[in-house]
Amino acid sequence: MTAPDAPVVLRVAGRPVGRYVTRPELPARLSPRPYVHPVTTLAGTAVTELSPVDHTHHLGVGVAVPDVEGHNFWGGRTFVRDQGPTELDNHGAQRHIGFQLRDPDGFVEELRWVAAGAELLRERRTVAATGLTDSAWALDFTFSLTNVTPDPVTIGSPATNGRPGAAYGGFFWRARKEDTAPDVFTAGAEGEAEVHGTRADWLALAGAGWTLVFAGATDATRRDPWFVRTAEYPGVGSSLASAERLAIAPGDTAVRRVVTVVADGRLARDEAAALARKAVSQ
After folding, report:
1. How many Å separate Cα 232 from the centre of its chain?
2. How does residue 1 score in pLDDT terms, banded at 50, 70 and 90?
């Protein structure tokens, strides 16, 4: 019998494609939180990294936010206006409460976002793995953040705190690092400089024998710009707070949904677009 909080092995047609860890044993500085790692293609190629040397606080696939009312749920240093990246004792943690649903192809989970001894947000997370073709599947990831405090809770990023171009925070996927940086493209742009910070229905990251296609699956998610890194490290996120802080009133909920195609091979632009449409419509 499986323990109620044991890691979830996600499967597509019986084949394991991802492992979701609910209670990672991590130091406070990494902002402990559940994550999916490893994620693999159907052929078995790993497309995530966990605590890589360049950024030990990058944890596969999950939700990470650098500023929730001044608390760091991203891990590592905190960007302080007029000061830069600074080591602070301000890290929060996402704590698994339990599963409302748990199947081989997905789950519904409840989490508490806790910092300084207080709960700021209650999250409902829904994750599902779906087959698309013989060489591609989709990871459907939805998170709903509810303000459980009596006051407004605001979410920020280094960009809203004075560091242009650094609007990371929200859904984030740390991809595998290879000898050559991956290519990145959307329907109308190509390259990190052209794609980073833009809004697009989908965005593709293509490495050596694999492609990830990220698609916003709600209007609110599609309005969030993409955060992209390829040269320094391979990572893609959807930015909750780009130009201004995101405010959540007491009792209100912010919801985002990103569906990611995980494909073997390097997809062309039309192939990536078709699979993104298929993944979002399922």
Report:
1. 18
2. low
